[in-house]
Amino acid sequence: MYRGREGMWSWIFHRMSGIGVLLFLFIHIVDTALIGWGPEVYNAVTRIYHEWTIFRFLQFLLIAAVLYHSFNGVRILMIDFWPKGYQYQRQMFYGAMALTLLALLPTGYFLLGPVFGLQVR
Amino acid sequence: MLIQCKVRRFNPTVDKKPYFSTYQVEAEPTDRVLDMLNTIKWELDGTLTYRRSCAHGVCGSDAMRINGRNRLACKVLVRDIGNKMTIEPMMGFTVLRDLVVDMEPFFEKYKAVKPYLINDNPAPVTERLQSPEELEAYDDTTKCILCAACTTACPPFWSNPDFVGPAALVNAHRFIFDSRDKAGAERADVISSREGVWRCRTVFNCTDACPRGIQVTNAMEEVKRKLLYDRA
User: B215 and A76: CB-CB below 8 Å?
Assistant: First the structure.
């Protein structure tokens, strides 16, 4: 094992979130295609996203992955195109993490609130 | 201080797979890790094998993984590592024995980027004059000692040994940004190829590993930008 620092962790999370989002895309293609068999089939399958607790956690992870991948993507753009970007890559990693967690607060409230018995409208 | 030193051992003629030997070594806090390895080799176990030459951070022979990070054994003090130490060979190369790895593929890639000044114009009567600003453009990458600490800290290199790697790109940078050099296009063939600079994923392990403090990732980013903007 190599003990990398922030740059290596940012790259590992970027890869994992990218692959995760890609895998969901395949699932999403299948669930969207179900509409071809009519609304009953589509509704019967897609309701599990909301009704099964495990799927609520998976959706939460999906949104976390999308958010991290976007914010860290901006970090990578800054490193690539802003000549001073490399000097701040560490700070930008923590920034991307902070923004991800911040943006996950409302997601967590709406998606996971009901799981923990919160009255969410 | 008493150091517990775990060293990854492998002798391909005898061993089926690598194993760890643990040594208890008495060392001064101001000793370098290399001094400690010397103590092991000279006083405890003569079979331990590693490379070292100048022992002053210039020849680049004794790069190795010390507690999980690539460092020159001759530039790291024992007190900065602590009394528990794990020493392993660099990753991504074939281990020839213990801490000695096969550096030939590394030097092949170094040669591939033509790391020398190419300028076929007739030499001027005096020098090829350069301004301080022109020197500044590549000064950082002149410091490379070819120890391979950067290349073997690079995840894209571990997964694809054909990647030319940070060290070769640092040395390409040194000539690409030299105003006297005229071989930009020749080098671009290698560094913008499939196995060239675009494999860099800005992991920054290389920058952290460089014992000379070269901003390795930044050098590769400058090369990428130059390739991109020259094409535009």
Answer: no
